[in-house]
């Protein structure tokens, strides 16, 4: 119970302190309006090129929009501690590092889920996409799985912030690469094999696939394998983040570079 | 002549400054290439192989806009954070003449995106650089970059008045890519976007480059792009003078 409290309360406090985009203007502009235009951009491009139908772009991009809050949030969760000079205090805590940092992912994943739901709802309304009502719970599940996997992916990138000086480069490039490699905007069949392979190990790829199946009315059973794969990818990044944080923490202590920017 | 020298030296100074930032270099180096790759695969998937050069140019212009939007939008705030805003505002010149080189520098830095996407397309995807009007393409590129720099001045002057300017900058990237027809033709968009597109210099800059690439009357688009940008320069200059006077009177120049 104490660990659960540490994860949830600690996560929420860290979210309020470290996430740069919590003011209403920043939240709406950066996390709601920006992603919606991203969806519209690719939906209209897809329409013009006739690569795939509206459902492909609306559902795929809605799932992908969670990545913005999750990837940058995960990075901020570690990098901003360092920037504000509070990382040492966190690492001095006698509590489990794993619980502390995994807990930080939860608010970002929730945030990502909210963005994905809003983007899908508004995008579908604007472009006239009808989603079967019985697909809604499954879609919610797919977007939650994608957000969680993306949150752990962001935390892994944040861990790199303990080693590299400018971790924002990594976050920005990663977000751009997710556009290309997750098959959200270019169908996997039109991408080179190596890009598809890399995409399988990235968050969102499987969640987007599951969400598309659900939106097409295929049912939860058809989407379950992809959902499972997404959760597996998320679990992989959760472990990777903790391992990297441990390695870089030990190295930072040894080199006395913990707070060096 | 002194004004021209000030603009040239100022622009060079700020280009050097931007080019020393590992963040700027990495972002300008990698993100446009990812976008160009995405555009190439999308156009190929849509059976539009003959338009790959157009796609590469479009992705490049998107990179120029991103550079101007984030660079110019944060130009004054950046000087403020570095503690140099008071010094440049103390210069015995109009504010527009000391801020314009910063915004033009962001546009010129952004031209890397255009070059990078073309080189990337040529060597990796074998896209032949068969421009319909090669000379006009070069002229249109230079005009487009300078024009966006002037538009950037208006953004810089406007953004400084807003507490959440970063939010607006983050919001404006995709809408301008979309409405300006950089990759998506304006004709497939809802008709109400037409008037918005018509007053944006990005629309005419992108159109000039597209016409120079695949054929069409380049010079009217170049002219309109330059005309709108000069209007932006005038408005930006007025706004900057207003902002400077207000900040001096309220003693808030250095306050974020």
TrEMBL record, chain A:
Keywords (A to Z) from UniProt: Antibiotic resistance, Membrane, Transmembrane, Transmembrane helix
First-listed, main subcellular location of the protein, grouped into a coarse class: membrane
Domain (ABC-2 type transporter transmembrane) ranges: 25-212
Subcellular location: Membrane
Record-given protein name: ABC transporter permease
Membrane topology: Multi-pass membrane protein
Membrane-spanning parts: 21-44, 56-79, 105-127, 139-160, 167-186, 231-248
Superkingdom as given in the UniProt entry: Bacteria
Signal peptide positions (record): none
A Pfam family assignment: ABC2_membrane
Organism: Paractinoplanes pyxinae
TrEMBL record, chain B:
Keywords of this entry: Antibiotic resistance, Membrane, Transmembrane, Transmembrane helix
Transmembrane segments: 21-43, 55-76, 96-115, 135-162, 174-198, 218-240
Primary location recorded for the protein, binned into one broad class: membrane
Nucleotidyltransferase among keywords: no
Keyword flag Transmembrane: yes
Bilayer topology term: Multi-pass membrane protein
Subcellular location: Membrane
Residues annotated as domain ABC-2 type transporter transmembrane: 15-211
Any one Pfam family match given in the protein's UniProt record, by short name: ABC2_membrane
PANTHER family for the chain: ABC-TYPE MULTIDRUG TRANSPORT SYSTEM, PERMEASE COMPONENT (PTHR43229:SF6), NODULATION PROTEIN J (PTHR43229)
Name of the protein in its database record: ABC transporter permease
